[in-house]
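Our consortium's second objective concerns turning raw sequence data into structural hypotheses that experimental partners can test. To show how far this objective has progressed, the report includes one record in full. It was chosen at random from the queue rather than selected for favorable results. The single chain below, 198 residues long, was entered without modification.
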Amino acid sequence: MEKTQKRRVPTRVLASGGILTAVSIVLMFLELSLPFIPSFLELDLSNIPALIGGFAFGPVAGVLIVLVKDLIHMMISHTAFVGELADFLMSGSFTLTASLIYMRKKSRARAFAGMGAATAVMTIAGAFTNYFILLPFYARAFMPMDQILEMCAGVNSLITDKLSYVLYGVVPFNIIKGLVISVITALTYKHISRIIRK
């Protein structure tokens, strides 16, 4: 009986992980724009399945869901894979941080602490990624930096240069994204985890 039980666990994990990855891929295509945030910073909820996977099966599983989602999204990439790399760095850091904190002691308080810390980590990762990777890439590949900043200023007048774009565009965007993902995960995780266990 013990050997049979051991064989079943990896199959369940793979099946559940595959379903969560598929849901994550679909959610990545459903993007929402936020007021006062530049339109190319769009909110998607693809982190939720990855975070649920991380809570249920551990940090490695959660990060793998993010990785597979981004690898598949590369097939239709419009950013020469730079956007997917940036998403992996931000989404991966969020999922890894929250899962690591939660796995040390599985409780509601640890889950909230993990998601709060993950939001902070993702916000910092997003700031550095946009400042040093995304903005320079878009300025070289698509349009001059001045035009990008002018377009951003049309939505948010506080944005006048790269630093203000990060402070008044990227930082609030990632805080909102982290909060939305955390709230939805908190509301749905218990129900989904029951299904996963079955």
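The partners drew two points from this record. The domain at 2-31+43-197 is CATH 1.10.1760.20 (Arp2/3 complex 21 kDa subunit ARPC3). The chain has one domain: 2-31+43-197. Both points have been shared with the crystallography group to help prioritize constructs.
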